[in-house]
Amino acid sequence: MGCVKSKRSASRRDSEAARGDKAYLVRSEDGSPRADPALLEYAQKLSEEIMARAVQQWAEVDRRYGDIPYIECDVP
Fold first, then answer.
1. Backbone phi, psi, residue 28, to 5°
2. What is the four-CA torsion angle of 20, 25, 29, 33, rounded to 10 degrees?
3. What is the 3-state secondary structure (H, E, C) of 3-71?
4. Which long-range contacts (CB under 8 A, 24 or more apart) does 64-72 make?
5. In 23-35, which positions are buried (b, 16+ CB within 10 angstroms) versus exposed (e)?
6. How far apart are CA 36 and CA 25, in angstroms?
7. Which of 75, 45, 3 is nearest to 37 (CA)?
8. Mind listing the pLDDT tens digit for each residue in 14-56?
9. In contact, 29 and 15? CB cutoff 8 Å
């Protein structure tokens, strides 16, 4: 029975967080908006992951099709 009770309280906390109770991503104390440090850290990690995947995809495409010569066309 304890598991059911803990699941219910966890779902209530999740719904409260979804409503935005005491959750601020951008704070404006003195008129200038400041991003939450946790948000900045998450954004940094996400951008690094996106760049790593893009470079990996580029390397795969270059390795696969790098030996095909590029032919320029005179027609616009």
1. -130, 90
2. -130
3. HHHHHHHHHHHHHHHHHCCCCCCEECCCCCCEECHHHHHHHHHHHHHHHHHHHHHHHHHHHHHCCCCCC
4. none
5. eeeeeeeeeeeee
6. 5
7. 45
8. 555 555 545 566 766 776 778 888 889 999 999 999 999 999 9
9. no
The encoded tokens of residue 2 equal 């304890």
| The pair of three-digit structure tokens given for residue 26, joined into one six-digit string | 């951008």
Among all chains, which residue has been given the structure tokens 């010569």? Answer: 69
Is the pTM for the entire model greater than 0.70? no
Tell me the three state secondary structure of residue 2: helix
